[in-house]
Design goal:
282 residues, mainly alpha
Length: 282
């Protein structure tokens, strides 16, 4: 187990697990350091991004940032067109100075299609959600599965609320994240995966759990995250908050989902049953 918060964290994980299952979990898998990743050096083959890509960011960033109460961030946008036309890769991260660094790779970005547009919109909303999270926790200190899962939940809500995505779009993204969680469950219990910061566990199961907590507690993803952030890094306060939100049946269901070894079970059924709640018989 990573010693994220030292003795206090380890003690809370043992002492409170009977009443507040989350203590052991919320001490695991810290997110990126406060400094954040630095922007990579530009590729020798980098060129100006396609006009439609720059125009899309210019139109999206101010409005989405404003909805989250953020100043308009700088976008460091770089493009490498050399891979084949079928090659479409987008990576992004928030730098230490709160720039959103975006790297596009592949000649397929020259054409605006539903696929390329969806990738840009979804990724931008996710990175803006991380900027919003920094307003509450300036050093991204929470576990990666809360950090990334929370950002996914906030981003999906943001895109639907602003009308950029339909409910069908949201369900498509929700299903894709649930599938990532299913893949993580095929690898065994989530605890060691959270400790190892496995991507499918962090993004997929992190989203599934945050979305479930928001629904069961009657909170929006942003409201949920804000209340959790207000308790961080005190695991006792965090456990008390979650214990107040959730009835005993929900606590037991979540504890089982996070601790059981689901190998041998159908992972899609496990995820669906968990999301349906205690009455589903998980």
């Amino acid at each position: 187990m990573k010693d994220v918060w030292g003795i206090r964290c380890l003690w809370a994980g043992g002492a409170l697990i009977a009443s507040h299952f989350v203590m052991g979990w919320l001490c695991l898998a810290a997110a990126a350091s406060a400094a954040g990743p630095s922007a990579p050096a530009p590729s020798a083959t980098a060129s100006a991004p396609p006009d439609w890509v720059e125009a899309r960011y210019d139109s999206l960033v101010p409005d989405l940032a404003a909805v989250l109460g953020l100043p308009t961030p700088r976008i460091d946008l770089r493009f490498d067109p050399t891979p084949a036309p079928s090659h479409l890769v987008l990576t992004a991260h928030v730098t230490a100075d709160e720039t959103i660094a975006v790297r596009l790779s592949g000649a397929g970005w020259h054409r605006r299609t539903p696929q390329t547009d969806r990738q840009i919109v979804a990724n931008l909303a996710h990175e803006l959600a991380h900027l919003w999270q920094r307003r509450l926790l300036p050093a991204p200190a929470e576990p990666r599965w809360i950090h990334e899962g929370g950002a996914e939940a906030i981003a999906l809500s943001l895109l639907v609320d602003t009308g950029l995505w339909s409910e069908i779009d949201r369900r498509r993204a929700d299903s894709a994240l649930a599938e990532r969680c299913s893949r993580a469950l095929e690898n065994g219990p989530l605890r060691p995966q959270f400790e190892g910061e496995t991507a499918d566990a962090a993004y997929g199961c992190g989203y599934v759990v945050v979305d479930w907590l928001a629904g069961r507690s009657g909170r929006s993803p942003r409201a949920l995250y804000a209340e959790l952030a207000a308790t961080w890094p005190d695991p006792v306060a965090l456990g008390t908050t979650l214990g107040a939100w959730l009835p005993a049946g929900d606590v037991a269901t979540l504890n089982e989902f996070l601790t059981a070894d689901w190998r041998g079970a159908d992972p899609d059924t496990v995820v669906r049953s968990f999301r349906a709640g205690p009455s589903s018989g998980l």
